[in-house]
């Protein structure tokens, strides 16, 4: 599958789509020059990123890159970025939509060579740590991680979701990790009340080129460190770093599980498999490996919201 780029299909639509001067397009040439390795791992400037493609519009960068990988048309380190998505997906097939060029919507192809498959579940958490680190460096915003795949910022004293992650298998040896970050969304453009953006959180910059470069470099550093120790979350420092930045730990939460089941308890730990451990009222410590987490009260406050 080739990513759909219909920017030239209609000249009037093309003109309108680029008319918002506060939201300039990404500079694909500059991004490739800054990020793409020269000569591969054993020659020239080594690095993870092998290609950066920017398209004006597509359905889902994750779907496109998974298809390219399965067909053998994308190598490890490929980055696919869309200025606009009309079928972007989050966990549980939730839609992720935003105005053109108001955010960063991209997917990367990773091959966790040498990492046991049972540790691949750490990749969304690794991407979250990389996002938080990159946004702190580039945009100067305080972020927090909501287990398992959301990034939070504070807007007018309230926690808001500013980013999300979706990881999908791409054949037997690869994973596509998709990342969405709301950058310049204004208050009247927010899709749901709990959403936010870097601009609304008081970011020092909303230059998407700068932010994307920094996040991808952070992702490369964490991925290579994690892969070099066979995906060991403790030896790589990933487990401790995620726990330190996780807003879910220490809070009363409800885990909404498949099959219309739920568990309520205090989120007390992150185990070696990346699962969230809940201490229930019955005195049981229950690990949760998948589900939708609802924060019921702020950390350290009495009672529920």
UniProtKB/TrEMBL annotation:
* Renumbered residue ranges of the record's region Disordered: 1-21
Note the CDD domains from the entry. Answer: BPL
Q: Has the keyword Transcription been applied to this entry? A: no
Keywords in alphabetical order:
Biotin, Ligase
Does the keyword field hold Repeat?
Answer: no
Tell me the ranges covered by the BPL/LPL catalytic domain, including all copies. 38-227
> What is the residue range of the signal peptide feature?
none
Q: Which InterPro entries match?
A: aa-tRNA-synth_II/BPL/LPL, Biotin_CoA_COase_ligase, BPL_C, BPL_LPL_catalytic
Give the matching PROSITE patterns. Answer: BPL_LPL_CATALYTIC
Q: E.C. number, please?
A: 6.3.4.15
Please give the start and end residues of each transmembrane region: none
GO MF term (any one): biotin--[biotin carboxyl-carrier protein] ligase activity
Protein's name in the database: biotin--[biotin carboxyl-carrier protein] ligase
- Organism field: Streptomyces tauricus
Upper lineage ranks? Answer: Bacteria, Bacillati, Actinomycetota, Actinomycetes, Kitasatosporales
């Amino acid at each position: 599958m080739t990513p759909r780029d219909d920017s030239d299909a209609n000249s009037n639509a093309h003109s309108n789509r680029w008319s918002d001067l506060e939201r300039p397009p990404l500079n694909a040439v500059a991004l490739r020059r800054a990020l793409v390795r020269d000569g591969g791992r054993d020659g020239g400037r080594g690095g993870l990123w092998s290609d950066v493609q920017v398209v004006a519009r597509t359905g889902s960068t994750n779907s496109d890159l998974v298809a390219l990988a399965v067909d053998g048309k994308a190598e490890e380190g490929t980055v696919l970025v869309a200025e606009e998505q009309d079928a972007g997906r989050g966990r549980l097939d939730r839609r992720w939509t935003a105005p053109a060029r108001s955010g960063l919507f991209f997917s990367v192809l990773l091959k966790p060579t040498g990492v046991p498959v049972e540790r691949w579940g750490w990749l969304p958490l690794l991407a979250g740590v990389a996002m938080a680190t990159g946004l702190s460096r580039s945009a100067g915003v305080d972020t927090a991680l909501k287990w398992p795949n959301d990034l939070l910022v504070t807007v007018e004293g309230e926690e808001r979701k500013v980013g999300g992650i979706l990881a999908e298998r791409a054949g037997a040896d690869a994973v596509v990790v998709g990342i969405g970050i709301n950058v310049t969304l204004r208050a009247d453009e927010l899709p749901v009340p709990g959403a936010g953006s870097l601009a609304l959180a008081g970011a020092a910059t909303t230059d998407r080129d700068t932010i994307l470069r920094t996040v991808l470099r952070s992702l490369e550093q964490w991925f290579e460190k994690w892969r070099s120790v066979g995906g060991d979350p403790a030896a790589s420092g990933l487990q401790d770093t995620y726990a330190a930045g996780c807003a879910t730990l220490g809070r009363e939460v409800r885990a909404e599980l498949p099959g219309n089941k739920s568990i309520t308890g205090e989120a007390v730990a992150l185990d070696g498999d990346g699962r969230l451990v809940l201490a229930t009222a019955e005195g049981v410590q229950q690990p949760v490996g998948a589900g939708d987490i609802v924060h019921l009260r702020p950390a350290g406050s009495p009672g529920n919201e």
